[in-house]
Design a protein that fits this description.
Structural class: alpha+beta
Strand order of the largest sheet: 1-2-3-4
Radius of gyration: 21 Å
Oligomer: single chain
Shape: elongated
Number of helices: 1
Helix content: 10-25%
Largest sheet: 4 strands, antiparallel
């Protein structure tokens, strides 16, 4: 009779975690912008702990904190160029 071989251990994939703290585009400090996702009210907000810069936008269940941060950076760049940002309905920056 042939021997049964051992089963190879199951390899588990590590889940990739996305950042929830970011670099502030106004004061340039690392990990000071914190994201808060309020799915019940449908708003995502970012706030810098140092310079009090903040941003808020409407979100849905597929949005992640990095999406809100990327939209904030896009709106900042559009404001720099003097364009009216399409998603700036809830944007407010204090710096």
């Amino acid at each position: 009779m042939a021997k049964k071989g051992k089963k190879a251990p199951v390899q588990t994939k590590k889940k990739v975690t996305l950042a929830k703290r970011f670099k502030c585009p106004f004061c340039a400090n690392e990990d000071v912008v914190e994201a808060k996702m309020d799915l019940k009210n449908g708003t995502g907000s970012l706030a810098c702990r140092i310079c009090s810069a903040s941003y808020q936008m409407p979100i849905h269940h597929l949005h992640e904190p990095i999406d809100v941060f990327s939209e904030w950076l896009d709106d900042c760049e559009a404001a720099e160029r003097g364009e009216v940002a399409a998603a700036s309905a809830g944007a407010a920056a204090a710096g």
